[in-house]
Amino acid sequence: MKRLEYQYLRCLDLKQWDAMAECLTEDATAAYGDGK
């Protein structure tokens, strides 16, 4: 799990979006608040 977390965060830092998608499952979703 730590290895996957590291890979995900590294892809995020380097803006490697295609590689980051490989860290997720096909049914992954994201929700973002309104910034408050």
Give the helices and strands, then pairings.
Layout (H helix, E strand, L loop, with lengths): L1 H13 L2 H5 L15
Characterise this structure.
- The protein is an all-alpha fold.
- 50% of the residues lie in helices and 0% in strands.
- The protein has 2 helices and no strands.
- It has helices spanning 2-14, 17-21.
- The longest helix has 13 residues, at 2-14.
- It is globular.
- The model has no long low-confidence stretch (mean pLDDT 89).
Keywords:
36 residues; mainly alpha
* Shape category: globular
Helical segment count = 2
Instruction: Give the number of DSSP strands.
Output: 0
Helix coverage percent: 40-55%
Low-pLDDT regions: none
Give a summary of the structure in a few sentences.
The protein has 36 residues and is mainly α. It has helices spanning 2-14, 17-21.
